[in-house]
Write a structure and sequence with these properties.
Elements (H helix, E strand, L loop, with lengths): L10 H29 L9 H21 L5 H24 E4 L2 E7 L2 E3 L1 H18 L8 H20 L4 H18 L3 H21 L1 H9 L12 H13 L24 H34 L3 H26 L16 H37 L1
Antiparallel strand pairs: 1-2, 2-3
Helix pairs in contact: 1-2, 1-10, 1-12, 2-12, 3-4, 4-5, 4-6, 4-11, 4-12, 5-6, 6-7, 6-11, 7-8, 9-10, 10-11, 10-12, 11-12
């Protein structure tokens, strides 16, 4: 059966992704040009600094998206060991002197003019690895030692390497996705409950162990108790939401981006969207995520292979975690974790990995559509025979 570019692609998913990513580039510029003038990296004094960098990443991500949406996702099963090794190497390089520091953490690799955050790529790598290994363990997934435990050792090592950066938000997100994939793989409830208790205990222990982390996790409940330090970012975000109202002050009209709101173009870009475009702008963003996540769930349900189904659901859940963590933090419903808003916030690594992840979803969808078309063609041939 010939490949049809029009019929075999999930256009609702694809168009929604590019609409949201394009909107993200626009909002990165709107929320960052003041910082580009006064606080640009290296004292650039260039209002277009962040726009130019994000636009380049968007073009690069578009190329990768077009490649991976036509890439046979089944090949990732064979590439899984290589991806896993590359994940460990990249995380190790960050910690042994090749990493660059920012915001008090060592999370980036500086490769000439390119600055990458390996943990962003590792998140996708772990989804691919877990989907591959647990799709092969369906026969004995009910056995903890043989079925559930071995991949958890690998996840534990990755968790430790990411925590050493430190990056508590990303490490926690990987653990949550791991639990979700194990659940979908058909693990027994006693095993799931045990893993849930261990994970919760680990989360609480690590949160309490570091004073700065504990303050960040608790300050969201009452930011006004420390308005000039731990509560500053959230309070300024509240002001942005209140200032925007229903329709906003207009594109470019934000006051909070005038160096009042920290991380206005990254973690708290949704607050600037709310201030400039109002609740309607926020609803547009949430609506786009709703379409992407809904299409991802449908793709996972319709996929006939265990690997493809687990891979689709893993990508969807990973994306959902990031969206919930970011929106929850900006709205004051969850602690501030430093997780950016996918496809919208400034950050090349995050944009690139998110676009690749959704391109893999598009590839799985393309396979589903072609299988459905083939089945219909066969049924028509039988009827006409």
């Amino acid at each position: 059966m010939k490949y049809s570019f029009v019929k075999d692609n999930d256009w609702l998913l694809i168009l929604t992704v590019f609409a949201l990513a394009s909107f993200g580039v626009l909002m990165v510029f709107s929320s960052s040009y003041v910082e580009g003038i006064y606080m640009g990296e290296g004292g650039t004094g260039d209002p277009y600094f962040f726009l130019k960098r994000q636009a380049v990443w968007f073009l690069l991500a578009t190329g990768f998206f077009l490649f991976f949406m036509h890439f046979n996702y089944q090949i990732f099963k064979k590439l899984s060991p290589f991806i896993l090794v590359l994940s460990f190497i990249s995380l190790g390089l960050v910690l042994i002197g090749f990493g660059s520091t920012g915001g008090g953490a060592q999370r980036w690799l500086q490769l000439g003019p390119i600055r990458l955050q390996p943990s962003e790529f590792v998140k996708l790598g772990m989804v691919i690895y877990l989907a591959q290994v647990y799709s092969q363990k369906q026969v004995y997934i009910h056995k903890f030692i043989r079925g559930v435990l071995p991949p958890l050792i690998v996840v534990g090592l990755v968790f430790i390497l990411i925590m050493l950066q430190p990056d508590f938000g990303t490490a926690t997100a990987i653990l949550m996705v791991t639990f979700f994939i194990i659940f979908l793989s058909g693990a027994r409830w006693p095993h799931l409950l045990g893993l849930g208790l261990v994970g919760s205990s680990l989360f609480i222990t690590l949160a309490v162990a570091a004073p700065y982390r504990f303050r960040r996790l608790t300050s969201f409940s009452d930011p006004f108790s420390d308005p000039l330090n731990d509560g500053l970012q959230l309070i300024q975000g509240y002001i942005a939401f209140a200032h925007g109202g229903l329709t906003g002050t207009g594109l470019g009209g934000s006051v909070q981006k005038l160096l009042y709101l920290p991380e206005a173009h990254t973690d708290f870009i949704l607050a600037i969207i709310s201030e400039e475009l109002g609740i309607l702008g926020v609803l547009f963003v949430i609506g786009c995520y709703g379409v992407i996540l809904f299409r991802g769930v449908v793709i996972g349900i319709r996929c006939k292979t265990p690997f493809g189904s687990l891979l689709a659901f893993g990508i969807v859940f990973q994306l959902a975690i990031q969206v919930v963590f970011n929106i929850g933090a900006v709205s004051g419903l969850l602690p501030i974790t430093g997780i950016t808003l996918p496809l919208v916030s400034n950050g090349g690594s995050s944009l690139l990995v998110t676009m690749i992840s959704i391109a893999i979803l598009a590839s799985i969808s393309r396979s589903n559509i072609r299988q459905s078309r083939l089945k219909l063609d066969q049924e028509d041939q039988i009827k006409t025979a």
